[in-house]
Amino acid sequence: MGIPQPAFYIFKCEQSAPPGMPKPSCVNDNTRDLFQHLGMKLMEKGLIATVQPIRTGCLNRCQQGPVMLVEPGHHMYVELTKEKIDRIIDEHIIGEKPVAEYLIAEEFWDVAITPAKMMKMAGK
Ligand code: FES
With a 6 A CB cut-off, is 25 part of the ligand 1 pocket? Predict the structure, then answer.
């Protein structure tokens, strides 16, 4: 038997904006410790070997931040808090049932455009 793949990757946006920047960002003084909280909770539950938390840059849903993307499944969670992260770990990661009420609204997360279609639209 080989080395098992992770069951989940969790991409947590860690983008911050300089003071005075009008655009919202996922990391500010109130949300700075969410990634650490995520990692600690996964560690406490003994999940770190099969669930890989990853710090990432902007995921392009800044207005709904803090955000994190759970793969597989393309599940985008928005307006995160520590309490929401705890519930996502319990119900989605362990229970394998996404927490629908914390997911991004469909109007902001429509069906993806395939790369081939995108190239066609761009005349490439
Ligand atoms: S700053 Fe987090 S999605 Fe853009």
Answer: yes
Ligand 1 centroid, distance to 67 Cα (angstroms): 7
| 91 alpha carbon – ligand 1 mean position (Å) | 24
Is there a domain that residue 34 lies in? yes
Residue 3 lies in a domain: no
Atom of ligand 1 nearest to the CA of 59: 3
* Sheet containing 75-77, strands listed edge to edge, beginning at the edge strand earlier in sequence: 51-56, 8-13, 68-71, 75-77
Task: Say yes or no to pLDDT of 19 above 80.
Answer: no
pTM for this prediction: 0.93
Residue 17's pLDDT is: 86
Does residue 77 lie within any of the structural domains?
Answer: yes
- Does 69 contact ligand 1 (Cβ within 6 A)? no
Alpha helices by DSSP H, 7-81: 34-44
Domain that holds residue 100: 8-121
* Distance in angstroms (rounded) separating the CA atoms of residues 71 and 9: 5
CATH of residue 40: 3.40.30.10
Q: Specify the number of domains making up the chain.
A: 1
